[in-house]
Structures are given as C-alpha cells and as structure tokens.
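We recall that each integer encodes one residue's backbone shape. We quote one record:
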Amino acid sequence: MARIFTVDEARSLMPEVLEHARAFVVVRADLAELTHDLRHAGASPLGGLPEAKGLEARMDELLSWFDAEEIEVKGVAPLLVDFPAVLGGVSVRLCWLEGETALGWYHRSDLGFPGRRPLP
C-alpha cells in the first residue's frame, strides 16, 4: 500500500525535499547546457559524453530519493512533487512546485494540478 502522509509529516520532509531539489536543479541545468553545447558546437566547457552520462546518473540518484520516501515526482522541468494524503476524508496530493519555499498547496487526487488550492 502506498504511503499516506499527514500535512505535518510532509512538511517535516520539506528541508530534505528542498535540499534534493536544489541539487537536482543544478544538475538538470548542467546537463541541459552540456547537451546543447555538444549538439551545436561539438564541445563544452562542462565536458563530453562521459560527463553527460555522469550527470544523467546523478539526476536518477537524486530522483530515487523521492521514490524511496514515496513522494511522487510529477514533473522534472519544473520539478513538481506530490505527497499522497487525505484531507477531510478525500484523497488528495499535497503539492510542491520548484521555486516554492514551503509546502502550501494541495489538489484532489482525481483533479491534478489544475485543481490546486492553498492548504487550509
């Protein structure tokens, strides 16, 4: 059975979420720049194919932390994660989007991001 978070449990994980998210954003940007440079210039100050493979592996490693915590990764650019939860007897996802400094949103599980609302 999938983990169901309380709001307090999800919020207690936010320092680690933010730490992993910051690292992910740096690696994602480096990989984007490296890939672009290699495609268009044939070389990059960030390295070559081995470095690209290393960055891909690091991205996978960072994302695996979310999986291990049973936090759902819904998108990677921007990074969007959901914590399965129940509010008022309704299945919801506590929702955090890259750039936010705290967990302050949720949406019904059946509605997804378009149904996003501030946490009560």
